[in-house]
Amino acid sequence: ETGVTQTPRHLVMGMTNKKSLKCEQHLGHNAMYWYKQSAKKPLELMFVYNFKEQTENNSVPSRFSPECPNSSHLFLHLHTLQPEDSALYLCASSLGLATGELFFGEGSRLTVL
Amino acid sequence: DAKTTQPPSMDCAEGRAANLPCNHSTISGNEYVYWYRQIHSQGPQYIIHGLKNNETNEMASLIITEDRKSSTLILPHATLRDTAVYYCIVRGDQGGSEKLVFGKGTKLTVNP
After folding, report:
1. Comparing C-alpha atoms, which of A34, A26, A19, A20 is closest to residue A3?
2. Would the CB atoms of B43 and A48 count as touching at under 8 Å?
3. Angle CA(A19)–CA(A4)–CA(A11) in degrees, nearest 5?
4. Rounded to whole angstroms, how far apart are CA atoms B22 and B33?
5. Are the CB atoms for A74 and A68 separated by under 8 Å?
6. Where does residue B41 fall: left (phi above 0), alpha (psi -120 to 50 degrees), or beta otherwise?
7. CB of B86 within 8 Å of any CB in chain A?
8. pLDDT per residue of chain B (112 residues) written in tens, 0 to 9
9. What SS3 state is found at B80?
């Protein structure tokens, strides 16, 4: 139990669907992150939020739309995805941007048909 | 791109020490060495980090060479639950938004 909870743990969606991934942290952290882990590839940083403000968008396609309503919650809205977007999506949080000690959730396994 | 080089895989016998090497020959003076691990189908877990002094916590020890160009993560008494991919990451801590860039890591298999 890391204090970072992701839902759903598994998601299957068609290319025309719209779905959302949710991340919640109870650690009092101010920074939150989305990472993508495709099969046989290293983790890729997608987005970074600090105090609800986006500070990093790592050239992520617009079919991925993040939302951070407060420092405890982070969403990743998905629409018109492609099969190659199938991956493990990991949320993480940290006390702030200055630290490299991130706390990761268990991930949401996404399959796009 | 990751700034570190790690062997792709290692094996260790249960109960023995696991010594995982990492080369980071281009490390800068203000960059820290971080270690994470990822057990299959779980999120990465922070283990330890250091700048130039050796560090120890309840999980592991980190030995950094004097020239800081390489380091070793030591799991003193490996258990089967330590089987995971171990990532060595170099990251600056300037107070800005330094990214944590994961490479391919070392897959450690602890054998009974």
Report:
1. A26
2. no
3. 25
4. 10
5. yes
6. left
7. no
8. 568 999 999 999 999 999 999 999 999 888 899 999 999 989 999 999 999 989 999 999 999 999 999 999 999 999 999 999 999 999 876 655 577 889 999 999 999 9
9. helix
